[in-house]
Write a structure and sequence with these properties.
Layout lengths: L4 H17 L5 H8 L5 H13 L3 E2 L8 E2 L1 H14 L18 H16 L2 E5 L8 E10 L2 E8 L4 E7 L6 H14 L7 H8 L6 H21 L2 E4 L11 H12 L3 H10 L7 E4 L11 E10 L2 E11 L4 H23 L3
Antiparallel strand pairs: 1-2, 3-7, 3-10, 4-5, 5-6, 8-9, 9-10
Length: 341
C-alpha cells in the first residue's frame, strides 16, 4: 500500500504521541491533540490501514494504536531525510579543549546523556589506536586454527577456532599473508578491519574463512580503542513498562566492549546519521532497542563515532539532532587537533 502524505503524517503523530505519553493512541485523541484537519472517522480508517500493513498495532483490546518496529523505522527514515544541513545549537562547547581530548570525549558523552536520558557512546579517534605489529595464522590440527595479533603497544590477542571441516593448509597460509599485507602496520581501527575483511575482490571461499577469524580482530579493536560511556547510571530511572527490560539488556551490552564498538562503527554511514531499530541490531540484548549514530572526524576521513542507545520508545528527533550536533562539535575539535599543519 502506498504511504500517502496523510498516512505518513498520521504515523508521525502516533509515534510522537506514544513516545510522549507511553499510552496507545486513539483516533479521537489524535485529532484533538494534534490538530489534524480531518474527522475522527477518517483518522480511524487511516489507522486501520497503517495497522494492516504492519506499521501500527494495538497491544490489547484497547482501540488505541502503538508503533511497530517497522513503523518506527519508516518514521525515522523520514526524520533523517528531513533533518539536514548544519546542526542546531547544542549545550557542548569544546573550543578551549584542544589539548584535553580525553576530557572533551567524556564531556560529550555527559552532554548527550543529559540531553536525551539515553545511553551515550563515543569512541576515541582511530588515530589514537596502536598499530598492528604482527599477525599469525597457524593450523594446530586439521580442524583447529589459532590466530595471534600483536599491536605496537605490546598487547596480544589470540583465539583458537575449531572448524566444522578440515582447513586447507594453503588457505591458512594465504590468510596469514593477506592479513599481513592489509592489516599489519596499520592502526587497529574498525575501518581498517572492515576494509580488509570486506574487500570486494575476495572469493567466496576466502571471505568465508576470513569471516571465521574475524572475532579476534574485533577483540583487537576493542582493546586498542578508547570507549566513553555516559548515562548508564540513570538509564533505568526514566524507564517504564516494557522499556525497563530493554534498558536492562542495554546495560548488559556494555559488558562486551567489542560488541559496543562494532555497533558504533559498523552501522555508520560517514555521510549521514544512521538509525537502527530492533531487528536491524545484532544480538539478543538489543531486542527492543534502537540506536542513533554519526561519525566525526576530518573532512576526508572519519576518526570516531558518536551514538545513542535506548528503548524503541525514545524521542528520535531529539536523539538525531543531539547526535548530529555532538558529532559536529567533535569534528571541529579534531580538525583543529589533527588537521593543523
Amino acid at each position: 500500500m502506498e504511504l500517502t502524505p496523510r498516512k505518513l503524517e498520521i504515523l508521525r503523530r502516533v509515534v510522537e504521541e506514544y513516545v510522549a505519553t507511553g499510552q496507545p493512541v486513539g483516533s479521537k485523541s489524535l485529532v484533538e491533540r494534534s490538530g489534524l484537519d480531518v474527522s475522527s472517522s477518517t483518522v480511524r480508517s487511516e489507522l486501520f490501514e497503517l495497522e494492516s500493513i504492519g506499521l501500527l498495532t494495538h497491544p490489547h483490546t484497547s482501540a488505541g494504536r502503538v508503533p511497530t518496529q517497522t513503523g518506527y523505522r519508516v518514521y525515522t527514515e523520514g526524520l533523517v531525510a528531513e533533518i539536514e544541513g548544519r546542526p542546531g545549537p547544542f549545550p557542548l562547547d569544546l573550543t578551549a579543549m584542544r589539548n584535553e581530548l580525553e576530557e572533551a570525549l567524556q564531556r560529550t558523552t555527559e552532554a548527550l546523556s543529559d540531553a536525551t536520558h539515553l545511553l551515550a557512546l563515543v569512541s576515541a579517534p582511530a588515530l589514537e589506536a596502536a598499530a598492528v605489529r604482527h599477525v599469525e595464522v597457524l593450523q594446530l590440527q586439521p580442524r583447529v586454527v589459532i590466530v595471534v595479533v600483536i599491536t605496537a603497544s605490546g598487547s596480544v590477542s589470540k583465539r583458537i577456532f575449531e572448524l566444522e571441516d578440515e582447513a586447507d593448509p594453503g588457505l591458512v597460509d594465504w590468510a596469514r599473508a593477506y592479513l599481513d599485507e592489509t592489516i599489519v602496520g596499520k592502526r587497529a581501527s574498525g575501518t581498517v578491519v572492515r576494509r580488509a575483511f570486506e574487500e570486494p575482490g575476495l572469493s567466496v571461499r576466502e571471505r568465508a574463512f576470513l569471516g571465521t577469524l574475524r572475532p579476534v580482530f574485533a577483540d583487537v579493536v576493542a582493546t586498542a580503542t578508547e570507549l566513553y560511556v555516559g548515562g548508564a547510571a540513570g538509564l533505568l530511572g526514566d524507564a517504564r513498562g516494557p522499556d525497563v527490560e530493554a534498558c536492562q539488556r542495554l546495560l548488559e551490552v556494555l559488558e562486551r566492549r567489542a560488541a559496543v564498538l562494532g555497533l558504533l562503527h559498523d552501522a555508520l554511514d560517514p555521510k549521514r546519521t544512521v538509525v537502527r531499530v530492533g531487528p536491524e541490531l545484532e544480538g539478543e540484548e538489543l531486542e527492543g532497542a534502537s540506536y542513533v549514530g554519526a561519525t566525526y572526524g576530518l573532512p576526508n576521513r572519519s576518526l570516531g563515532a558518536v551514538g545513542l542507545l535506548g528503548p524503541l520508545r525514545m524521542d528520535y528527533e531529539k536523539a538525531i539532532r543531539s547526535v548530529r550536533a555532538a558529532a559536529f562539535e567533535l569534528s571541529r575539535l579534531v580538525e583543529d587537533v589533527y588537521g593543523a599543519p
